[in-house]
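[Help] Beginner question about ligand-bound structures

Sorry if this is basic. My supervisor gave me a protein sequence and a SMILES string for magnesium ion and asked me to "get the holo structure". I don't really know what that means in practice or what format the answer should be in. Inputs are pasted below exactly as I got them.
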Amino acid sequence: MDANKSTIMKSARNMSGRINWFPGHMAKALKQVKEKIRKVDIVVEIRDARVPLASGNPSIKEVIGGKPHLVVLNKTNLADQLICEHWKKWFQAESKSAVFVNALQAKSLKKITSTCKDIMKPRWQKFKNKGIKPPPLRLIIVGIPNTGKSTIINRLTSRNAARTGDRPGVTRNQEWIVLGKDLELLDTPGIMPPRIETEEEGMWLCAIHAIKDEIIGKEQVAAYVINQLLETKSEQLKKRYHLNCLDHNAEELLLLIGEQLNYKRQKGNIDITKTCGQVLQDFRKGLLGPFSFEIPPDN
Ligand SMILES: Nc1nc2c(ncn2[C@@H]2O[C@H](COP(=O)(O)OP(=O)(O)O)[C@@H](O)[C@H]2O)c(=O)[nH]1
Ligand SMILES: [Mg+2]
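Answer (accepted):
No worries, everyone starts somewhere. Holo just means with the ligand present. The predicted complex, written as C-alpha cells, is below.
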C-alpha cells in the first residue's frame, strides 16, 4: 500500500512549490489566433459548460478587438443541469452572448449559427439600407484544447458543406467552408492556450482534459476528481465501482477501485496508474455522472 501511495503523491511542483502548468508560448499562440480572427466577422468561442469562465482565456478580448463574440458552452450533457441554468442567467445578467450546447446533438448546434446571424443582423442591415447585398457572414471557431472545436466544425460541415474554392471568384485555397446560405466558416479552429489564474482552476482544466495529464500526473488528477465527486456525487462513484464504503481518502479509494477493476501488476500490487487512467476516462465520458466544477460568481 505504501509503495502505491508514494506514486500518487509524486508531485508536479518545481523547487519553489509552484506548478509548472506549461512551457509558455502564450504570446505566439495568441498572435496566430489574432491573424485568423482578422479574416472573420464574428468569433465563436467554444468553452466547457462545466467550467464556463475558467475554460476561456481572458486575453481573447484583446485578440478579438471590437468584433462580435459568441461564447458557446459545450458538453452540457456532462455538466450539472441546475448549475447550467444558473450560468445561463449569469451570462444574461452580464449581457454576454452565450449558448449552451451538446455537440453530439445536431439540433443544439443550430443554436450556434442562428445566434450568429441574430448578432450580426444590425450590421448586415446597414448593407441592405444602402441597397447592397451583404457579404457572406464569416465565422471562426476558437477555444482552448478539448472543448469540442473539431467536433463542432465537423458536425456543422458534414451535411451541407461545400468549399468556396469550388466556386469561381472566391478564395481558391479552400480555407472557407460554406455552411449554408450566406454563412462561411474558417476551416481550421483557432487554438487558444488556457490562462490559469489559480491552482484550483488548473485542476479543473486538468479534469476536463484541456491540460495534458502528464503536466500534473494522472494520479493527482484522478485523486482531485475523486475528492470533488465525494463532496456531492458520491453515490454514482460507489455504484460504478461497486464500493461498499466511501469512508476513505482519495488515495485509498483509488486502490479500492483498482482492486475492484482487478488492475494488478505482478505480485498482486494494484496498478495505480492504470486505475487512475480508467477513472479519468470514465469521468470524462460522463460515466460518473454529470458534474460542474465552476459556479457563477455574484454578478
Ligand atoms: N460528452 C460530450 N463529448 C463531447 C462533446 N463535444 C465534444 N466531445 C468530445 O470531446 C473530445 C474533444 O473534442 P474535440 O472536438 O477533439 O475538441 P478540440 O480539441 O476542441 O478540437 C472528443 O472526445 C469529443 O468526442 C459534447 O458536447 N459532449
Ligand atoms: Mg481539435
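A couple of things worth pointing out: Residues 74 and 101 are 5 Å apart (CA to CA). Residues 1-11, 160-172 have pLDDT under 50 and may be disordered. Feel free to follow up in the thread.
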